[in-house]
Amino acid sequence: MIEYRIDRRSGIATYVQIVQQTKQALRLGLLEPGDKLPTAREVVEATAINPNTVLKAYRELEREGLVEARRGLGTFVRRSLGAAAADSPLRAELEDWARRARAAGLERDDVAALFTSVLEQDFEGEQR
Is the pTM of this model over 0.70? Predict the structure, then answer.
């Protein structure tokens, strides 16, 4: 089951963080069709956020057709995203690259900026 991590200093709305983390788990194959998302109460207890924020995120995911709410049962994954399996050899290469970047003295934001610039260059013209 997914565990949401909320970064209150990120400047990104909390519900958006939940949506983004759910989509990432779907892309990595950590969540699959039929899997149940944590209840709003479970997310609130783990993150100390407002239950309405969790519900807003789940409604957004439902609007996008990624999950479905089943009255009295919970919220379930309807479909997955992408094909970036968590155990992909590319992940191991990326982890190695990230370790080398850190060893070279780059900070997290530097690595993110570098990676984003390469993504934008190599995937120019594609929709997110």
Answer: yes
